[in-house]
Amino acid sequence: MSERPYPLLANAIHDAPRVKIIGSDGQPHEVQIFPFGEYGTIIRHGLIREISHGLSKKLKRWQGQFDYLVDLMPGGGRSGLIVALDCGVYLTTGWVNRGGLLYKTMLDDEFRVKVGGPHGGELCFRGIEANDRVVILDDVIATGETMKSVIRAFKERGPIIAGVLTIVTKGDEYKRIEHDFDIPVASLMNLDERGKIIGREN
């Protein structure tokens, strides 16, 4: 049996603590708290290198098919800057609307997307125009609700989604995204519903 290509990532997934939450959809969800995710902790240099090199390698497959990378903050944020720098591409970052005075004002080029699933809330974006070609980056696709909401909103606005890039897919929802939206999804690790590693990169 050959060695896994991302041993430090595999260890981080295996060691990730699990918590149970009631999502914005009112349903219970078990969530793994990955160090590279939005509720992460210290990320060691070797793990940063594995993740960034793996994502960069996958993004380069779509070279010439997209204009810039769209990073779904906060989940994709840690990786987005590194990958964009490594690949020499532009990056735009979304952000979470957490309320407060700043979020009451919308800039002319801003739009907002309501997202469901375990996290819920509203993601905000700027500078994304019709006919732009983009790759969307996030840390994890599990229920797929956040990504599907963003894809639908982008399709209404007009940019062309060349692909979706993620560190981890959990379950089969990424396949539904590929089928329903005809958009390729690439990840470094595939997990089953319980969080066990079942496959390598796709």
Estimate the strand proportion: 25-35%
- Spatial strand sequence of the major β-sheet: 4-3-8-9-10-11
The biggest beta sheet, please? 6 strands, mixed
The low-confidence parts are none
Report helical residue fraction.
Answer: 25-40%
Number of strands: 11
CATH class: Alpha Beta
H/E topology pattern: HEEHEHEEEEEHEHEE
Protein structure class: alpha/beta
Radius of gyration: 16 Å
Any idea what the CATH architecture is? 3-Layer(aba) Sandwich
Number of domain units: 1
Shape: globular
Under CATH, the topology can be stated as Rossmann fold
How would you state the average pLDDT, rounded? Answer: 89
Number of helices: 5
Kindly report how far apart the N and C termini lie: 19 Å
Pfam family, one: Pribosyltran
InterPro entries: PRTase-like (IPR029057), PRTase_dom (IPR000836), Pur/Pyrimidine_PRTase (IPR050118)
Protein name: Phosphoribosyltransferase domain-containing protein
GO molecular function: transferase activity
Short recap of the structure:
With 202 residues, this protein is α/β, with parallel strands linked by helices. It has helices at 7-15, 45-60, 77-87, 145-157, 173-181, and strands spanning 18-22, 28-32, 68-71, 90-93, 95-96, 110-115, 121-126, 133-141, 160-170, 185-191, 197-199.
